[in-house]
């Protein structure tokens, strides 16, 4: 580790092509075990939370503007590069790029039932497609002090838009990536936790009446289709958010935020 700066001027440089692909291709992220971060705050937040960057890329403008703030990144990274504004535009996913980027190793987010606190409070999301929704749920979960978040299917937790929307929460919060959510839920049932499926159903219990006497998981579904029947069946109870207006349902992140508030209230 160190602060030696190398310069990259070609958009076709292999390091740049790799970074760009990590920012747009979820299958490539899974294959390589790496992900891409953009922005001073997110990159520094990752480094300050023990996520060592493999590579850091900054423009001359960013170097002049942020100076000492970048030292935490440079000292933590294995490789540091100065890039041109043209390259910054190529790998950036925002309109007004800060010119600060890094490539990091993915964290161990795979499900391990032994890591779940049976007395804890968790939000689970199934097949969430919109990165902004995923990020918003994680940010709220951390803000409200939940013990963690369970993600099954849908948007990749390392999607750059999700990471930005989460403001670092997806990197700090205990997040479990689960491929078979119904089986995971059944294991949690067996360990004595309450598991709730959030559904817009007349026979569901109002979220204000959930049992807070022991650990629990509340599951929120896809933006358009809600939860799968298998997941609903695996949960010990169904809950709903009482609504008096004409709207039949809520945005996935809005629903999750309301449920999480009730979980900790």
- What is the first-to-last residue Cα distance? 45 Å
Helices, by number, come to 12
Shape, please? elongated
What number is the mean pLDDT? Answer: 91
- The count of DSSP E runs of length 2 or more, i.e. the number of strands, is 12
What is the beta-strand fraction?
15-25%
Notes on the protein architecture:
The protein is an alpha/beta fold. About 40% of the residues lie in helices and about 20% in strands. The chain has twelve helices and twelve strands. The strands form two sheets. The protein has a seven-stranded parallel sheet, with helices on both faces. A five-stranded mixed sheet has the order 1-4-3-5-2, sandwiched between helices. Strand 6 (about 120-125), helix 7 and strand 7 form a beta-alpha-beta unit. Helix 7 (about 130-145) runs parallel beside helix 8 (about 160-165) and helix 7 (about 130-145) packs parallel to helix 12.
SSE topology sketch:
Layout: E1 5-8, H1 14-24, H2 26-32, E2 34-38, H3 40-48, E3 53-59, H4 60-66, H5 71-76, E4 79-83, H6 85-91, E5 100-105, E6 121-126, H7 131-143, E7 148-152, H8 160-166, H9 169-172, E8 175-177, H10 181-190, E9 194-198, E10 205-206, E11 216-220, H11 229-234, E12 237-240, H12 252-264
Parallel strand pairs: 1-4, 3-4, 6-7, 6-11, 7-8, 9-11, 9-12, 10-12
Antiparallel strand pairs: 2-5, 3-5
Helix pairs in contact: 7-8, 7-12
Please summarize what this structure is.
The chain has 265 residues and is of the alpha/beta class.
List keywords for this structure.
alpha/beta; 12 helices; 265 residues; 22% strand; five-stranded mixed beta sheet
């Amino acid at each position: 580790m160190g602060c030696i700066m190398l310069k990259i001027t070609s958009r076709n440089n292999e390091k740049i092509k790799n970074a760009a692909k990590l920012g747009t291709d979820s299958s490539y992220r899974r294959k390589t075990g790496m992900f891409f971060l953009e922005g001073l705050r997110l990159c520094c937040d990752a480094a300050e939370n023990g996520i060592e960057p493999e590579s850091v890329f900054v423009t001359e403008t960013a170097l002049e503007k942020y100076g000492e703030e970048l030292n935490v990144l440079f000292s933590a990274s294995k490789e540091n590069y100065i890039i041109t504004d043209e390259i910054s535009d190529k790998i950036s996913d925002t309109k007004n790029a800060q010119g600060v980027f890094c490539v990091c190793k993915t964290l161990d987010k795979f499900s391990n039932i032994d890591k779940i606190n049976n007395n804890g409070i968790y939000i689970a999301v199934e097949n969430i497609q919109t990165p902004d929704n995923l990020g918003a749920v994680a940010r709220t979960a951390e803000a409200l002090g939940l013990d963690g978040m369970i993600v099954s299917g849908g948007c990749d937790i390392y999607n750059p838009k999700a990471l930005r929307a989460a403001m670092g929460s997806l990197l700090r919060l205990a997040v479990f990536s689960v491929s078979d959510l119904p089986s995971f839920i059944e294991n949690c049932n067996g360990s004595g936790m309450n598991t709730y499926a959030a559904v817009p159903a007349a026979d569901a219990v109002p979220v204000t009446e959930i049992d807070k006497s022991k650990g629990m998981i509340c599951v929120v579904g896809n933006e358009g289709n809600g939860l799968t029947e298998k997941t609903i069946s695996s949960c010990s109870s169904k809950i709903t958010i009482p609504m008096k207006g004409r709207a039949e349902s809520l945005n996935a992140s809005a629903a999750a935020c309301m449920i999480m508030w009730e979980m900790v209230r």
